[in-house]
Amino acid sequence: MPSVNAHLAMTHLVPLAKEVDDDKVTPGVLGFIVFAVMALAVWGLMKSMNKHMRKVDFKEPAESSAAGSSGGATSAEAEARKG
Questions:
Q1: Per-residue pLDDT tens digits for 53-65
Q2: Dihedral angle of Cα 44, 46, 48, 50, to the nearest 10 degrees
Q3: What is each CA distance from 27 to 11, 31, 35, 38, 80, in whole angstroms?
Q4: What global pTM score does this model have?
Q5: What's residue 80's pLDDT?
């Protein structure tokens, strides 16, 4: 059974609904609240994503270490040719 307050609210809201033009539809307060909640959720997710992305290390391994082992052989070969 609905409570007395729910019944009272319904009797006060029904006349307000009759005043709305049938050809004009607006999102109203509920639409604004849903939009605001979604905007806050997206803002919070982006803030969290930025925090996690700052922790990620994008530095690649130094190419000199890979080239240094093969580069060392080429420099030794170059010295052998000179001497």
A1: 999 887 887 877 5
A2: -150
A3: 22, 5, 10, 15, 83
A4: 0.43
A5: 61
Question: What's the sign of the alpha-carbon dihedral 14, 19, 23, 24?
Answer: negative
Amino acid 71 reads G
Give the span between the Cα atoms of 5 and 44, in whole angstroms. 36
Residue 83 neighbours by CB distance under 10 Å: 5
* CB-based contacts of 69-72 (< 8 A; 24+ apart in sequence): none
For residue 17, give both structure tokens: 């609904």
Q: For 43-56, give the secondary structure using H, E and C.
A: HHHHHHHHHHHHHC
DSSP state of 7: H
Q: d(Cα 54, Cα 39) in Å, to the nearest integer?
A: 23
pLDDT score of 39 more than 90: yes
